């Protein structure tokens, strides 16, 4: 998988050469546009054909990233524009039974995927230090690749989280963190299935499944009604669990920077950046939701004394 590094080197050299064109004017734009179109058309085809996982290349939605990108754009259009306008003059939907069934189904799906991650490698066979992708048609290798595909599909189903928020007019829930997370993960998981269906990076999927079992169980109980909310005293600990998740992924991914087992090291860097961004976003959410209100209450109490 050193091809990832080779592409980066080639791209750097290409842009250095382009930057050295003398006396470039507006008239040269059509020519440069044609050069770029031809180049990146070739890069696109070569990347998919030479670097893609041949086992997954013909699976539905995986051959090209375009369907996934279109679904993400449609999701953004629905939740940010169409949905809010449709609900502007309507009362919020209740959706109690739908939410109970949906969140319960997500709990079961997350439990299934967590088990499959363990059974496909992480329980006995995989190394926690560095684990390459097995591109063979070995039974366990195919099982892990198939699981990566199921994981990708599960991220598409999670679009419903935001749709339900819009239909219930829970506008505060449709935050930058929420939208960023739900629009990015389908693209990331498509990349996972298309190029690296297995290996070191699937550890983050395993941890994410564990977190989602707890998260969707919380949502399911919350949807049952106010009489059950007394059992949800542990709400703020959900964010603690999510923060621990990103720390674990960061530490696990950092090992790729000094250990070479055949898994692309650039993916370790991407996972480090990814986990750092999400740690920062969730930390800010925790501060805004739990720490800041307490500080304001304390300040208010001191003023009244």
Beta percentage is: under 5%
Number of strands: 0
Dominant shape: globular
Secondary structure: helix percent: over 70%
> Are there runs of 5+ residues with pLDDT below 50, and where?
none
In total, how many domains does the architecture comprise? 2
Rg of Cα set: 23 Å
Ends distance: 66 Å
Alpha plus pi helix count:
10
Main sheet?
A: none
Task: Write the element-wise H/E pattern from the N-terminal end onward.
Answer: HHHHHHHHHH
Rounded mean pLDDT is 88
Strand-pairing-aware structural class: mainly alpha
Oligomer: single chain
Question: Which labels suit this protein?
Answer:
305 residues, mainly alpha, 10 helices
Helix and strand arrangement:
Elements: H1 3-19, H2 29-51, H3 66-87, H4 96-122, H5 139-157, H6 159-167, H7 176-195, H8 202-223, H9 235-254, H10 265-304
Helix pairs in contact: 3-6, 3-7, 4-5, 4-8, 5-7, 8-9, 9-10
EC number: 2.3.1.199
Enzyme class: transferase
GO molecular function: fatty acid elongase activity
Précis, in short:
The protein is mainly α and 305 residues long.
Explain what you see.
- The protein is mainly alpha-helical and 305 residues long.
- It has two domains: 1-51, no CATH class; 61-304, no CATH class.
- Helices cover 72% and strands 0% of the residues.
- It has ten helices and no strands.
- Helix 3 runs parallel beside helix 6.
């Amino acid at each position: 998988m050193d091809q990832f590094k080779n592409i980066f080197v080639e791209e750097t050299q290409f842009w250095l050469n382009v930057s050295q064109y003398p006396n470039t004017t507006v008239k040269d734009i059509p020519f440069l546009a044609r050069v770029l179109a031809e180049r990146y058309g070739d890069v696109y085809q070569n990347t998919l054909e030479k670097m893609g996982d041949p086992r997954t290349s013909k699976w539905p939605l995986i051959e090209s990233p375009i369907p996934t990108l279109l679904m993400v754009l449609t999701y953004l259009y629905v939740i940010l524009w169409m949905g809010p306008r449709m609900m502007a003059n309507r009362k919020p939907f209740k959706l109690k039974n739908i939410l109970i069934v949906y969140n319960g189904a997500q709990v079961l799906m997350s439990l299934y995927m967590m088990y499959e991650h363990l059974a496909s490698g992480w329980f006995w066979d995989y190394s926690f230090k560095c684990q390459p992708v097995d591109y063979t048609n070995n039974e366990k290798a195919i099982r892990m690749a198939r699981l990566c595909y199921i994981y990708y599909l599960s991220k598409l189903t999670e679009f419903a989280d935001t749709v339900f928020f819009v239909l219930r007019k829970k506008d505060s829930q449709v935050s930058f963190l929420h939208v960023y997370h739900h629009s990015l993960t389908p693209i990331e998981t498509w990349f996972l299935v298309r190029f690296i269906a297995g290996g070191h990076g699937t550890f983050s999927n395993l941890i994410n499944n564990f977190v989602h079992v707890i998260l969707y169980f919380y949502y399911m109980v919350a949807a049952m009604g106010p009489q059950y909310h007394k059992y949800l005293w542990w709400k703020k600990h959900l964010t603690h669990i999510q923060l621990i998740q990103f720390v674990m992924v960061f530490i696990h991914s950092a090992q790729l920077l000094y250990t070479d087992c055949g898994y692309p090291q650039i993916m370790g860097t991407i996972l480090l950046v990814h986990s750092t961004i999400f740690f920062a976003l969730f930390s800010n959410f925790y501060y805004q939701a739990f720490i800041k209100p307490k500080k304001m209450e304390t300040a208010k109490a001191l003023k009244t004394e």
